[in-house]
Amino acid sequence: MKMEELERSIVKEEEQEEEMGEDMERSIPPSPHVTALTKYSDLSTPKYNLIYSLPHIKLLRAVSRLKLIQTGITIYSTGIAAFAAVMLFSASHYLRRVVGMMYLDESQTTLKVSHLTFWGRRKDVYLPVTDVMTLGDTGDSIGETILRLKRYSSSETLYFSTRLGRVVDRQAFEKVFGT
């Protein structure tokens, strides 16, 4: 019964975050162009089209939040804080780098990448398409299970999968990542 309540509260939080995100997106001032990683963008002017989606991102979000509960229970019940901390940070290290969705604006110049934060919330990152490495540049091939999303201007790496996720718009996907 408690698991169902947890799932309902997570879904409710997601809906509230989406509503808040839409309101915030409307109030962000326009940006003339994107030259690097930016936190804000004018989403009321350009329309973003979904090009990639990971259906299991909600499950990963729940796991990300459950890791916090597991850490608290471990510390409270046994006092083994070192084990709890290692589990928390190792799970977080990978979960924060999984791409849930990618969108491309209509002008095909800005890629919006959504992934999870440490707390299991959605974080959107806006990247110029010219800064995103193609699969050939990263050394990955389209047949691999896990692919890397890398940028020329940063060493940070995010991960996505065309086998576990789905490419919604193949032409736009190939515009960003090559063929």
Describe the 3D structure.
With 179 residues, the chain is of the alpha+beta class. The protein has a domain at 30-55 and 99-177. It contains five helices and seven strands, in the order αβααβββαβββα. It has a five-stranded antiparallel β-sheet with strand order 4-3-2-1-7. A hairpin with a 6-residue loop joins strand 5 and strand 6 (157-160). Helix 2 runs antiparallel to helix 3 (81-95). The protein is elongated and about 55 Å long. Residues 1-13 have a biased composition (Basic and acidic residues). Keywords: Membrane, Mitochondrion, Mitochondrion inner membrane, Transmembrane, Transmembrane helix. One of its GO terms (cellular component) is mitochondrial inner membrane.
Instruction: Give me the strand/helix succession.
Output: HEHHEEEHEEEH
Beta strand count: 7
Q: Which stretches are poorly predicted, pLDDT < 50 over at least 5 residues?
A: 20-44
Global mean pLDDT: 77
Shape: elongated
Summarize the main sheet: 5 strands, antiparallel
> What is the overall number of helices?
5
